Amino acid sequence: MKEMKKMLLILTVAMVSMMTMAVSCEEPEPEPQPEPEVLKDYNFDLFVCAVKHGGMSQNKNGTYVRSVTALTADQPRVEFTGKGVDITQNYTLESITRGKYYYQVPQKATGGFVKFHIERNAAGEETIVEDAEVPFKDNVYSARKYTHAWIGDSTTLVIVGTANKATKVIWSKLNESNLAVQSEGTLDLKLPEGFNAFSTAGLLTYRKSDKKLYYFYLTKREAGQSDAATSVTNIAVINPETMQLESNTAVPSAVMEETAGSAYGELMQSMIMYDEADNMYVAGMITVNGQEMGILRRIPVGSKTFDTSWNGFPNPEGKLLTVQYLGNGKALSYSRDETLGTKIDSKSHFYSIINLANVSRERVKFNGTDLQYCGGRFSQRSVVVNNKAYIGVGGEVEGEAEATYPTIYIYDCKTGVVEKGVELSKGFCFDIIRAMDVK
Amino acid sequence: MNVALRLVLSLTALLGTVSLYAQDSLALKGTLNDTLVIRNATVTAKSREQKLREGAFAVGALNIRLQASTLQSLTQAIDRSSGIRIREEGGVGSEFDLSINGMSGNSIRYFLDGMPLDAKGTGMTLANLPVNIIERVEIYKGVIPASFGSDALGGAVNIVTNRSRRNYLDFSYGIGSFHTHKADFNAQYTGKKTGLIFKPVISANYSKNDYLMHDVKVRNEEHTAFVIKDLPRFHDDYLSLFGQLEAGVADRSWADAFFVSASVSKVDKDIQTGATQDRVIGMAERHTQSLNVSARYEKVDFLTDGMQFQVSASHTMDHSQTIDTTYRRYYWDGSYIDGSYSEIRSRGKTLRHYRRPLTVVRSNLSYRLAEGHELALNYVFNRSGNRQTDDWDSDFVPTDDVLAKHIAGLSYDQSLLSGRLNNAFFVKDYVNHLKIGQNEIPSTTGANVVQGSDTQNYIGYGLGTRYLFFDPLAVKGSYEHSVRLPIARELLGNGSTVYPNVALKPEISENFNLGLFGTVDLGGGHSIAYEVNGYVRLVDNYIRATVTETESMMQYVNVAAVHIKGVDGEIRYDWAGKLHVAANASYDDSRDMRKYTQSGDLSVTYRNRTPNRPWTYANAEVSYSFYDVGLRGSRLRLSADYQWVHWFYLTWAAFGSASSKSKVPTQHITNASLLYSWHSNRYNVSLECTNLFDALAFDNYMLQKPGRAFFLKFRLFL
Question: Which among A52, A144, A411, B708 has the fewest CB atoms less than 10 Å away?
């Protein structure tokens, strides 16, 4: 009897072990996402444009960058007259950033990639130092028309773009330190019947829990700007080592017609975020009553497709433009109220805090009052660092143009308290805040 | 009388002083014969150019005939003029913009004998028009007489061709650096029996433009890094051919002149760069062919005494092709990668055809009410089509745009106080009709805003006055409320490097000019002439060229308000037609005066200096002529000129630290030339060296221009 019990125990343990192993094979233990980036010693790079907001090639009037140590209210107003770096001629506003470095296909169109950082020269002026510049190998990319992801402990940068009138999708892997092109190729993606172009760049992201690249792209009836209702969003899952396609799924239009952006990757605007459990959230849009409205979808950890039952951005006022994870199940959104204007410079854009757990949303307030609406369809005036979200508000209100300054508001991710931060000189179109390591 | 006569006929002018310096005795004929013999007399008269300068309007005038033997192109001569700046992108045949008193190139209208130069085909410009056929160039600064029937804003350049009645044959051939060849032929023959006049013109220009580009980035041998090198341009060939035959009669009872003409032109151009030199192009080309037929009629005392009538009509069939069918990314050493986007537009492949038929009718009817009082009525019709098709891009939907203008003007000129006081008053009516059919890249070209037909009416008016105290001092002033309708290039693009912007609005400007000028005859053949002009231009919807990011394409955009203030001055010294010294300087302050952006925000560029344009520049020139050198009746002319352009920023000056800003550096360009003429100017040989010290020269967008270059020209004039 003892022997039988012993055998039964062994058998039970063996079966449980095998079942556990089987489950483990199907769903590897998720690697926890790191806490939101913690930078010990960092600056904030503030990008402004003259006359018009600068994203999406809209600015022809100049782009200027100031690098400041803090954005708190005790700092002097950030001025651009005679100060800052004028990047207009050489670099694009849109860029990949990591640590202290910027990586991009530059505006100056020298036919390659460039890596640079901003530092202060002997005169105390911000200046750009180029750390590496390499020519394209075989795949050629246009300035700002590409998407990216970091793989291999962030030592490798993957660039993806389209070629031949957006009919094929190309990729290149670059060495982070010297930008050397490690390998290149074309993704095995085909346009379905009746579709003539891919999106200009799409959105590429790397999920650490399953060590896969996710490539969100559109198939469109024709190249260029498209009608969301006729486009189809697709999710390609890619092995980052081989760049082979592992799956490719068309998203039903009722779930998402288009991602929030598809032409310039996340070079400027953040449209994909992860929570602590490595659930992936993607900002997109669907057409409601003839208007393109925002939607926030989730790909749960372990899954490769959207959870169609979940929408983190219900009852939208308009397009959802950017999302950033704040920690503790909360996210910062930047969206638009269609009734207040749909132009790039329309004062119709505003910030909200989304509670992802109960899918509630509330406007960001300072002293009990909503932060004002601001212009800038293609802007990323918010950055999350060290449990604080720094939120830039355009400043001017129509009819009160001379009365207000662009201002940073600081949201404490743990307490939810908003305090007023530093002001910027008025008159500029405030487009980007980036937190950059200074080491 | 047994006394030697010495006669000096000195016709003083700023650039082209015509002097007949007679060493030998010469008896004057006509009214002076029989009874009068003059010893050591100097007869001075004002040239046509000088008279133009002394008119009621601000006018610069250049005698080209005297420079034709050395000039490579008309732009060279004009660029040295006071208040004028030419932005030339590169070598022979390159795109250029001309600025007069601060107004940009397309605010300027170009005329060939009063007809729009475009009528000769879009490929024909100041840069390739044969210089030998040109008598003079009139440069109207700011205010333009109604007789041109033009909607120009910043000024006008009227090229006046040789109207000589005598038969002649003029041939020249030049060869220069960068594989440049130029040949011009023009002639006039009058049939003895029929009186029919024939004027053939043939002109050919070719250049490889393979001048050296300094400090350009190319890949190393392993293609793993960039290295800096000096390399020649490799895809900038330019060929232009022009032929014209004009035939007609002159001095008939029914017509002072009646001519019909037909001309053909062909321009083939490789495209080497985008609007900036970082974008290297190695395969794209542009071809233009044009056929023009025209007629002109002129009659003094038309219908009644004192009435003068001129009418011209012209139709041009203009066909351009832009071939952009290669997905390549070139580097300056000619190597390339098979790329993803077309070379010019960074989009899909295109082989685009642009057919731009142009019809121009111009008429002037003037009537002398009394001595010194003249009334003139002017009407100009200008219709430009723009049909686009594409042989390569199957997605392209053919389009057809129409741009039509009717401009009517009424002017009244008076001359009072024995000619000391001249006044001119005018009013113009502009009707602009636009029909937009294109719909390509609508958010960029404005086709999403403007579609279908649109007709607008505008009124312009102005006046000019001049008072001559005495020869050394005269004052003139003029004012115009002017309207400048966008031209086809600005609205519809150029088919290659300029995007359309069909949403462009007309420029409207208040133009003020005030000038002093005078001529001082110092005796002994010495004379000094001077002029100083101040100007103010208050422009709404100023049209400015910008370079679009990413594609390095150019596009014209409206700037809500721009105020331009400036002054230019010139002084000229001449001694007996031998020594000629001139210098001029210009200061041009252009400010953005839009206070609010479109969304109602305070504009940060309010009151800022407009970027991308030189604001201070100067020229100086000296020449000396030796007579009877080697051969009797010969002339050896040595000349040199110097151009200085102050550095300027490529972006708004006020923002960003000075060390981080891109700027076009100060430029010092020196040119020198030598001309030897003999047999009463029948034979001419010239040698010119441009950019003598091989200085780096740039256009407004940092495109490098040619370094030191030589040009040898032989001209035969019979």
Answer: B708
